[in-house]
């Protein structure tokens, strides 16, 4: 099915194209910056193998071209991103390290592309439009997927590039024990896996004393099967934007950069 094209002119700051780059799929849509709603149907293309910068850039070009988009673009990336440059590569091809991802995607698309960490993007979406909207104080979003991503927000303001998925826990990289991919690989039930999440989140809680946790990633759609099993001082809310959080947050980052 083809997405409705976005060929109407868009006022600056009104909308942006969001791209969510993940290990298995790359998704994109035009996002309304006022409501956070998708203005075009979300399109998903399988992540190329190997997922090198050039191969991924080709997919980003295809997504914006299919939507006939010519405005700002925001893209998530599952790594530390400092001023557009990837500084880590935990679950992606090592060739990304030190790549200026902003520059690669901007050159390929001919558009201004803003890249940010995937969990930071998901957090922006939840803070603007979802489970953390209007929440004061310290909010920590944790995404459970292939790895564990984190987004830290103080009074709605992002503290970028936290990497709480890589805290050391009992001598292990925390995401290698408590990511959702570990649950799948080891065929754990939600009840079994929630014990690992409990150990991990109580550690994060002890270090940061947050006011609110938001839990995201694919497993947030089954939140009622594991969130009630957690025993923490901090309230825990499931993410609300589910599959669209990355796209929406990336687009918002692009819009807000344009407004600087
Ligand atoms: C990466 C983070 C990323 C998270 C979720 C981790 O392995 O280090 O940068 O946010 O996975 O994709």
Automatic annotation (TrEMBL):
Record Pfam families: ROK (PF00480)
Annotated InterPro entries: ATPase_NBD, ROK
Superkingdom of the source species: Bacteria
Gene3D superfamilies (UniProt xref): 3.30.420.40
Family note: Belongs to the ROK (NagC/XylR) family.
PANTHER family cross-referenced by the UniProt entry: POLYPHOSPHATE GLUCOKINASE (PTHR18964:SF146), ROK (REPRESSOR, ORF, KINASE) FAMILY (PTHR18964)
Protein's name in the database: ROK family protein
Taxonomic path: Bacteria, Bacillati, Actinomycetota, Actinomycetes, Jatrophihabitantales
């Amino acid at each position: 099915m083809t997405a409705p094209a976005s060929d109407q002119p868009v006022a600056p700051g009104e909308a942006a194209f969001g791209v969510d780059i993940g290990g298995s799929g790359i998704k994109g849509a035009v996002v309304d910056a006022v409501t956070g709603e998708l203005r075009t149907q979300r399109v998903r293309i399988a992540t190329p193998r190997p997922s090198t910068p050039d191969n991924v850039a080709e997919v980003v070009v295809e997504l914006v071209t299919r939507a006939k988009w010519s405005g700002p673009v925001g893209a998530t990336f599952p790594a530390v991103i400092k001023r557009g440059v990837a500084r880590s590569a935990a679950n992606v091809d090592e060739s990304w390290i030190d790549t200026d991802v902003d520059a690669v995607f901007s050159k390929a698309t001919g558009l201004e592309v803003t890249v940010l960490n995937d969990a930071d993007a998901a957090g922006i979406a939840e803070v603007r439009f979802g489970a953390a909207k209007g929440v004061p104080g310290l909010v920590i979003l944790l995404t459970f997927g292939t790895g564990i991503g984190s987004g830290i927000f103080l009074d709605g303001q992002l503290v970028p590039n936290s990497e709480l998925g890589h805290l050391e826990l009992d001598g292990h990289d925390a995401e290698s024990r408590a990511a959702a991919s570990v649950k799948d690989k080891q065929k754990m039930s939600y009840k079994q896996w929630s014990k690992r999440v409990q150990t991990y989140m109580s550690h994060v809680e002890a270090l940061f004393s947050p006011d609110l946790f938001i839990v995201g990633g694919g497993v947030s759609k089954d939140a009622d099967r594991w969130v009630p099993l957690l025993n923490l001082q901090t309230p825990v809310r499931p993410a609300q934007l589910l599959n669209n959080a990355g796209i929406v947050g990336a687009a918002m980052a692009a819009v807000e950069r344009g407004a600087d």
